[in-house]
Amino acid sequence: MRWDAIRIGGGGPAAPALFEREAVARSSGTPGFAGMTFFEVHARSIINRVPEASRMPFRWTINPYRGCSHACTYCAWGETPILMADGRTKPLADVRAGDAVYGTARRGRCRRYVPTTVLAHWQTVKPAYRTTLEDGTSLVSSGDHRFLSDRGWKYVTGREQGAERRPHLTAGNKLIGTGRFAEQPKDSAEYRRGYLCGMVRGDAGLGTYGGIPQFRLALAGTDALGRARGYLASAGLATTMFAFSEASETRRMMTAIRTSTRDQVRVIKWLTRWPGSPGLDWRKGFLAGIFDAEGSCSGALRISDTDPAIIGWTIACLYALGFAAVAEPARHADGLRVIRLRGGLKEALRFFHTTDPAITRKRSIEGTAIKSGARLGVVSVEPLGLDLPMFDITTGTGDFIADGVVSHNCFARQTHTYLDLDAGHDFDSKIVVKVNAPQRVRAELAAPRWRGEHIAMGTNVDCYQRAEGRYQLMPGVLAALRDAANPFSILTKGTLILRDIGLLEEASEVTDVGLAVSVGCTSQDLWRTLEPGTPSPQRRLEVCATLTGRGLPCGVLMGPVVPFLSDSPAQLGATVRQIAQAGASSVSPIVLHLRPGARDWFFGWLGEHHPDLIPRYRGLYGRSAYAPKAYQQRVTEQIRELARQEGIGRTSHRGGAGARRSRLQPGQPTQRERAGGTREAGDGELTQDAVQLSLL
């Protein structure tokens, strides 16, 4: 790198606070750093502790830098579905203060579902664990997160004795709730036609009256009426809205829409005809429409009608979507029959999420007791081997419903914003450099109060980003960790780590060292446009191979997998094959996430480089920040199978003198932990470009 054009001070941006002395702001004329400012600061401390509120007091990180000069186009992940008070779900990362969600409250002898308000929302980075349940529910959380079990609140991890003794999940425990939520339907043309068919046939007047063609739909409430009117409008059919009947002591006000245009009535009849071979989208829409028109959910979910055709189609659609239902015999002169959904609350919620009826009040589960026959026994609790961004909320009830199980509130705080810098443009362009990091590390490791806990580097940003080439802070940091025999782990996408391979080998002789690199795909063209400030994927895999060859096993975080650009079977196979050839000890896949803000930037990039893909991305992501679960699971399963075929993780590499000590991968227990000492936190890192959904 060339740093000849650096200038000091002057009219540079104001420096962040919270350091020992005033920061020196430097900007560079080097093309690779155009528009960037480096704040050189003297940190008061460098080994940072996770806040006390996390209830995990022995978790530490070192971040020589804040902000990152890698200039990646994508951003952070977060995916756990949270049950909102309107009966729908929203990813935990997208929930905001003021939102209404479901929590729980004890009423009498039972704990029941109740609406509650989100009071705050946080994000942090912590070592991640996956809790797998019997029904396939997979919950990614930190070790100190708590879930409600049949034996009370339990942490994800803990010990039976010692300083970390606490109630924690073990095989055989059963979590409380209904289990994983179903994916919500896409707003496709077939779904809309199915919805109109169910709604119009179930509750509308459609025909010729006194020689005049007429369509009229009257409902109490505007949720379903507005949806039906909007769907008709999308088909070019304009309707008039009017007050159908005033409210009384026993009835709510009813509003209606209508049209008497012959051609429009004819088109509505055509839209709502019975299809010859309906797809799943049409079936989901039909069930949503007929439920809004003729359904209820009070104790059990029921749909009632007198039309044999509607009864038949409703049962057929339920069965096609895997629901069990019973059609009760007609008990009225008019032939009214009731279809009752089996399976209790678990299946009712699956029905709501699979079909998405419009009427919110019919989806309410307020006051329902928290009990179900769901198979929610704990099968396993496994460390993922990485620090992941964790999102959390505080609610009025102290809990919330996360992917169908009752989850306790936790706390967190932001990082770059803590320095009065924003997490967007400032994160990319204003880099805080703790120039005294090596000296502070050595001093703090030597302090009598330091207990030798595991230290994670890169928990917020890459410690081997390009700025490290100028400031060279890591050699001093690693030397201090080596001299203190203190365990640590690193995740990077930079090649500068090879500069320090000698120090890493020396450290691995006296303590546990965990290493990993991130590689989303091996396409040179995609890398050049998507990650312009990073070393190429091939160079990163060379880093992995070099480290492994020197007896320092290295894993690969395969993320992000970019839909339609790096997700074909051939591309995934090529990437995993090269990861295997590099001798990676593990591979962990992550699919592209488009959070608010990052979504705008990414679509701008997409419009410039791949404009033909914009409609496909809108179809895949819709309004969500996340690709559908089915897509994510398919990619994950493909990569796992490819990794199995290539033998990743099967071979123990022994290429150097440090192999005995350096086999620790991010997330595995340290030597101190295996000996029965305090749990070492912070195993494994994750940079801001490659993150996954999680809970605190």
Characterize the structure shown.
This protein is an alpha+beta fold. It folds into three domains: 48-73 and 410-674, TIM Barrel (Alpha-Beta Barrel); 82-181 and 370-384, Endonuclease - Pi-scei, Chain A, domain 1; 189-363, Homing endonucleases (Endonuclease I-creI, Roll). The chain contains 19 helices and 30 strands. A seven-stranded mixed beta sheet has the order 4-5-26-27-28-29-30. A five-stranded mixed beta sheet has the order 1-2-3-25-6. Strands 9, 10, 11 and 22 form a four-stranded antiparallel beta sheet that branches. Helix 14 links the parallel strand 29 (554-561) and strand 30 (587-591). Helix 4 packs across helix 5 (308-320) and helix 8 (437-446) packs parallel to helix 10. It is elongated. The two termini are 39 Å apart. Residues 1-20, 51-58, 71-78, 410-428 and 652-696 have low confidence and may be disordered.
